[in-house]
Amino acid sequence: MIDPIIDSKKFEELFQFLISKEESGTRLDHFLSKKFTYHSRTTWQKEITEGRILISSKTVKPGVSLKEGDLISYHPIQKEEPPVRNDYKILYEDEFFVAVDKPGDLPIHPAGIYRKGNLLTFLKESGKFKDLFTVHRLDRETSGVILFAKNSEIASILSKSFSLGNIQKYYITKVHGNFPKRKSAYGILKPDLSSKIRKKRTFVPLKLIF
Predict the structure, then answer these.
(1) Is 84 exposed, middle or buried (0-12, 13-18, 19+ CB in 10 A)?
(2) Which residues form the RNA-binding S4 domain (predicted)?
(3) What homologous superfamily is domain 15-74 in, according to CATH?
(4) Distance, CA of 118 to CA of 105 (rounded, Å)
């Protein structure tokens, strides 16, 4: 039986990667902010300044120019992951792909603070799948069917089918109450800071001044 909620986890990881010939000559902070967009350039500069990013085991400044063969090491500060749901269901599986019913409040793949609590990691850690490749995505807050390919060739075929519109996604929204056919309102939509749903907006009415 799968528990619907996974407790918060603390993680401490080390990420390393080599700089290629094409990437040489780029500033370190520019390289990181373009390659890893879950942090802003300002945040990456802070990580570099505080010594969590090293080049060939040495501390550096954000503006250092990268060279081919540089080994960048990133040891992020220990963080606690938010709890996520893991009551996913396997809807279909064959030798080419697997279709999964993803619940809301569950990221599809590792990103930002969600390094362990995500659907792809849960599937791999279940021991039922050797390799899985994402071919499309849904937002963390959105529930729905997700396809994972079992090899890179099938992943390429499915991704192309999505981009060409041969595979279509349909979204269903649940609403409450009786809505009039037409209603006029004057105001703005702002982020709802009281909600844990990142993209939720709230309507703020504005007064008309004549």
Answers:
(1) buried
(2) 26-89
(3) RNA-binding S4 domain (3.10.290.10)
(4) 9
